[in-house]
Amino acid sequence: MLMVLAALLIVFKIVFYNESLLVVGRTVLGFFWLFILPGYTLMLFWRERLDFLERLVLGTAVAVALISLTSYYLTLGGLINVHWQWIVLPLVIELTCGIILWYKNRQA
Amino acid sequence: MEKERLAEGALLFAVFGILLWIGLGAYYGHQLDSSFPKGFMATDSFYKYDRAVSLDEAGNNRYVPSYLTGGIKGLEEVYPFASFHNIVLFKDASGLELYNSQYLLNVLYVILAGLLMYTLIKRYNQKIALLSLGIYGFLFIGNFNIGFLYGWWPQIMGSLLLVGMLWIAVFWEQPGFPFLFAILAASAFLAHPPEGMMGGAFAAVIILVDLVKNKFSFRIIKRSLWAFLLFILLVAYYLPIVISDDLVNSTGSFSFSPKESTFPAPMFSHLGWYGWLVLAGIIITLIILINKKGENWKFFAPAFFMGVVTYSALIGINERVYQNRFFWPIYFAIFFGLGLYMAIKYLPAKITRFLWYGIPVILLLISLVYYFQPPAGSGLIANEEMWEGIGWVRENVPTEEKVLIFYGDSYNQNGIYSAFGHIVYYNNWNYYLNNIGYDLSESLAKIQKGEVAENYTSRPFIHHQTLPKRISLFKLEYVDLWKELGLNYEKVDGKGRGFEPRSICGFDYVVFDKKSQIPQFAEYNMKVWGELLKNNFVTEAFSNDWYSILKNEKPGEGCIKNGK
User: Fold this and answer.
1) Nearest chain B residue to A71, by CA
2) Does residue A95 lie within any of the structural domains?
3) What is the distance between the alpha carbons of residues B190 and B260, in angstroms, rounded to a whole number?
4) What is the model's pLDDT at position B516?
């Protein structure tokens, strides 16, 4: 995953060569943190059926769906301020998936 | 094997880079954070953007901002909202301006959808998958790019999720996939309902065929029902709005007569000579499917299904399906790859393994050189100064104070008034120029005579006609905004839609554009501006090269000498 992050940084910096490294770095990290990482973590449940690329790409699409859905209902219910959700939601998804996977692996 | 994986990775990042370059880099001057919104070329661009703004500012999505409803509060948003959440969250995560977050995120959605289709085709045949990448340049070329300029962000996100749903449905028998399908379908439905419904219809076809093949297996029925129930649960809150007449009426019509597109829709000919390879691929696919008795039909099913859907307007299903043609290069990628694969396979020269990785890049570059042009101009927000003036009104004018906007070139797409973040009134000369029948001849006569008057025919900017109030969790009551505000929406005797003669002296602020492509209008604006400034209770509150905004300290007092 670190290779993916590094490659994204390089591609973004080449395409947006007039932009500062700071803005490019934060943008790539933002996308990686918000969609790629939680999606990939969730797709680890299917690691025997999907290859790395499938987990990466399908996972990101599923994260796009999951983040928007949870944000929609959390905001509707006034549960978490929308401006904190970019930190909280990926973290909760990653921790929840991580704990379940760890527990499943231990049992196996 | 390792070498091939590296080559594939390098190719995919190269394709990603090329698509990012033509999707945003070239238009944005290879920057990420533009100082004003680019590409806002239609009224929808502003309406959609305003929903993200209102979520960002209010921190919730419960009610429509009162500046869009003539001041009425507590009315429910009818437009599906999920896509705007991601835009706001990505803005917070990336630190980009909201409008830049919106544009970039949607470019990434399109590229992601392309990569997703690549992984699906790869399961059928890797060489065809590699070649199929060569058509993706068209995603950002000509009419295929219209969704970005018309601000159809929810539709773009819905389309990404639709590709995800097609992917999952093809492998419906995999454990846990119906659960993923329900999440994708619910989010698509809450972003842009048609894509959710299309994905559902495709899954239904796959499930039905599986059921027939598996003698109505209880396992398939159970899994499908679970997915459906989870979907219903996830969209339950929004469902009453979708099934209400108002939204259905606003999303096109169903009648069995051919429908024309209401926007410059992509046509098959727009694929240029790449389209011939797609056609060849369709014919070859049919031959293969017939010869092999339908083996691997599921890999081709998404392309055939979306082909039928995107042409269904011709038999009158719904004109909105023209929007789904934006993703043709993705849906038809398998046909393109197969057509090209067959053409290459019978070449006398030997194709080395690594040439398969080079061909899609060459094809992408050819499409870029021959067909690609970045969108012309920055859009209806002409420059940073115009955006600064709009922002000044949004941030500095108290909510209860009335603002009148005089003539400006960009206001022919009236969604732009939502950007002011206030109940603004406007003298929209374009209604007369476009000759749609509202009687504003009086106002135009004033310009022609160069006469500065006190009364102008103006109207308040109200986005909706009716909006719901939620009485209980699943019960809505619709409010007619225009009736509630005592305004006349219907056109009667050549007047209506709230157009009435109103005194220019009754407003707290008057906004003047200093520049116009029609110099007479700009001159006239400045003439009225000069007359107002003759009063000692009128001062210039904001000024730059684009705007002058006047503040009237005594609204209601006479401000135009000898005015009518």
Assistant:
1) B85
2) yes
3) 27
4) 84
Q: Would you call B35 an interface residue with chain A, using a CB distance cutoff of 8 Å?
A: no
How many domains does one find in chain A? 1
In single-letter form, the type of residue at position A106 comes to R
- The confidence score (pLDDT) of residue A57 equals 97
Judge whether B371 is closer than 8 Å to chain A, CB to CB.
no
Check if B111 contacts A (Cβ < 8 Å): no
Q: Which residue range is the domain that position A76 belongs to? A: 52-108
ipTM of the complex: 0.96
- Is there a domain that residue A33 lies in? no
3-state secondary structure of B283: helix
pLDDT at B76: 87
Q: Are the C-beta atoms of B46 and B419 separated by less than 8 Å?
A: yes
Q: In angstroms, rounded to a whole number, what is the distance separating the alpha carbons of residues B314 and B364?
A: 31
Cross-chain Cβ contact B29/A18 below 8 Å: yes
Q: If we measure between CA atoms, which residue out of B521, B513, B511, B560 comes closest to residue B537? A: B560
pLDDT per residue as tens digits for the range A4-13: 999 999 999 9
B258 CB near a chain A CB, below 8 Å? no
B17 vs B14: CA distance, rounded Å: 5
Tell me the C-alpha distance between B452 and B432, whole Å.
18
CA–CA distance, B432 with B447 (Å, rounded to integer): 12
Per-residue model confidence (pLDDT) at position B435 = 42
Cα–Cα distance for residue pair B71/A1, rounded to 1 Å? 50
Cβ B549 vs Cβ B392: under 8 Å: yes
Residues of B within 8 A of A33 (CB-CB) are 93
- Could you tell me if residue A94 is inside a domain? yes
Indicate whether A35 belongs to any domain.
no
Cβ within 8 Å, pair B55-A58: no
DSSP percent split of chain B into helix, strand, coil, nearest 5: 60, 10, 30
Task: Report the 10 Å Cβ neighbour count for B272.
Answer: 14
What is the rounded distance in angstroms from the CA atom of residue B366 to the CA atom of residue B518?
40
pLDDT along chain B (564 residues), means of 10: 84 95 94 92 89 90 87 87 95 96 96 97 95 96 91 94 97 93 96 93 94 84 93 92 64 65 87 94 95 91 94 79 92 96 82 82 93 85 90 92 88 87 80 48 69 84 86 87 81 67 92 86 88 92 93 90 65
Kindly report, residue by residue over A73-99, the tens digit of the pLDDT: 999 888 888 999 999 999 999 999 999
